[in-house]
Design goal:
With 236 residues, the protein is an alpha/beta fold. The protein is built from eight helices and seven strands; from the N terminus they run βαββαβαβααβαααβ.
């Protein structure tokens, strides 16, 4: 068992983010979770933060560093959607999704790398989506924000790869959540017909990949896009 590390999961109060946080907690790491409402799974340090606000991020990191020590693993997971067809999408719908999903990841990572550079080690995992590479109708904003994370991870890799820091992208496909449980039988059948695995992923299947790519075993992987989508994206 390796020494516990300090892990930050943004948007870790619900959905996939919560499962990712729980996976690191189960491994024995010290986990902090940021969310707008300040909620967190049991065993995690709950920190209220808004990824669209740089000062809020600074305050969150100061609190985490004070209580748990320097952040060694960052999982940028906080994200929103505002779906609409492109011809109907307004500026605010586009800009708000980019500001949270892409610029929010930038703000979080920028604040995290100071300690990582000092420590000469760090793991950055950006949670993208099959939507970012495959494209989804009605999600020009979301797909663009999630595709942007790939460029962000690869630029970080070029800049910080020599300092023991890796930056990777995990791109989930359809995950079994409360949202997919509410789909009609017709919608479920349509979605499943496009997935070679013929099932939705369990949230834990994403969380375990995030945990692994943050481990010492994945020290030579950086700038990669790891799909967890049952074959849906096929390298897109």
């Amino acid at each position: 068992m390796s020494e516990p590390r300090t892990v930050l999961v943004t948007g870790g109060n619900r959905g996939i983010g919560r499962t990712i946080a729980e996976e690191f907690i189960a491994q024995g790491d010290n986990v902090a979770v940021t969310s707008r409402n300040g909620q967190a799974p049991e065993g995690a340090l709950a920190v209220s933060a808004d990824v669209t606000d740089t000062e809020s991020i600074d305050r969150a990191f100061a609190e985490i560093e004070d209580k748990l020590g320097p952040v060694e693993v960052v999982v940028a997971n906080a994200g929103i959607t505002a779906d609409n067809l492109l011809m109907r999408m307004n500026d605010e719908e586009f800009e708000s999704v980019l500001d949270t999903n892409l610029t929010g990841a930038f703000r979080t990572v920028k604040r995290a790398i100071t300690g990582m550079i000092r420590a000469k080690r760090g793991r950055i995992v950006l949670i993208s989506s099959v939507s970012g590479l495959y494209g989804v109708p009605g999600q020009a904003n979301y797909s663009a924000s999630k595709a942007g994370l790939v460029g962000l991870a690869r630029s970080i890799t070029r800049e910080l790869g020599s300092r023991g820091i890796t930056a990777n992208v995990v791109a989930p496909g359809f995950i079994r959540t409360d949202m997919t449980d509410e789909l009609s039988e017709k919608q479920r059948t349509e979605y499943l017909s496009t997935i070679p695995a013929k099932r939705f992923a369990e949230p834990a299947e994403v969380a375990k990949v995030v945990r692994w790519v943050s481990s010492d075993e994945a020290a030579y992987i950086s700038g990669a896009v790891i799909p967890v989508d049952g074959g849906l994206g096929m390298g897109h």
